[in-house]
Amino acid sequence: MPRPIEATVHASALTHNLGVARERAGGARVWAVVKANAYGHGIERCFEAQRQVADGFACIDLAEAERLRALDWRGPLLLLEGVFEPRDLELCSRLHLWHAIHAEHQIDWLAAHKTNLPHRVFLKMNSGMNRLGFAPQAFRAAWQRLVNLPQVEDVSLMTHFSDADATRLGADGIAHQLAAFEAATADLPGERSLANSAATLRHAQRPLAGGVNVAGDWVRAGILGYGGVPDYPEHDAAHWGLQPGMSLRAQVLGVQQLQAGDTVGYGSAFTAPGPMRIGTVACGYADGYPRHAPTGTPVLVDGVRSRTLGRVSMDMLAVDLSALPEAGVGSEVTLWGRSRQGAVLPIDEVAHAAGTIGYELMCALAPRVPVRLDE
Ligand SMILES: *Cc1c(COP(=O)(O)O)cnc(C)c1O
Fold this sequence. Notes:
By secondary structure, the protein is α/β, with parallel strands linked by helices. It is 27% helix and 26% strand. The strands form 4 sheets. The protein has an 8-stranded parallel sheet with strand order 10-7-6-5-4-3-2-11. A 6-stranded antiparallel barrel has the order 12-15-18-17-16-19. A two-stranded antiparallel sheet has the order 8-9. A hairpin with a 2-residue loop joins strand 16 (298-301) and strand 17. Bound molecules: pyridoxal-5'-phosphate. Pyridoxal-5'-phosphate (PLP) binds next to helix 9 and strand 11.
């Protein structure tokens, strides 16, 4: 028997969650962002569920774009960071990939690219995040260069928010970037894409100059599609109506009875204050569970909330069974997501306890964990 640990990807939740994006986005079209192997869920595994709602797929790796075309996806497919070297443009021509243009060198490469099929590009503005993109004052010149190229068929406009999930300097987090984007693009034609999950959930209906709104023409739905919440703990999955896209479940392998003063695991990081019953679970950091999750991180045992105890080791962790006399070897432990009994432990809660975000936990699911698709 393989180790009793398994992740489940919930197809119906993926479809439902993208539907939430579609509703919030008003009339805008929805990219399902599937970078990082669909946030750890598996591109091929998620595809049928996501294509029911998605108008397009957005990724970063060219190999991911190839995988989507191999699934026979013929619709819009966007490379969010554009190409990494000139010959990547050959793949863009061959597979009809739309690609971001975030810097001058990418325009140079495109100008030298031989193609019969002009490309659709998304010109990216650095409106304040200072990661990728043209500064607002350089944006128009870049746009002009692109529209003059025979290799370019259409130029769309794009930017990315750094603080759509929060406030910044007392204002909602996007005001300064929105102002920069609008000022530099107000009179430019082309479709717009501004909103990630946080902006789609929190700001999509907000009007922009020129009769459009923050949703623009395309929203880029990443984390929300997988049931993760971009602005946890201010809001939770229930608030936004999102369902877990993935559950990670393991079983209790052994049970120990502790007396006051007994300790648990490496470094004796937990000391029993009195008699306790604990379970050792077949999940550790080599499965992608965060090693920094402290004592008290929530888990579900047979669908009932409990907590971890002591340090997470490579292949095991300990949970408190003191209040669960029925639990024992073989009991199901849900590390995040939905238990078989239906109870939900949001991934955001676990991530928060461990000092990280749901994104990181999903993406870090280890290859050794078998994954099952639940229709
Ligand atoms: C990852 C990414 C997104 C999606 O972000 P979420 O917060 O997961 O919705 C959107 N746009 C760009 C450019 C990205 O890199």
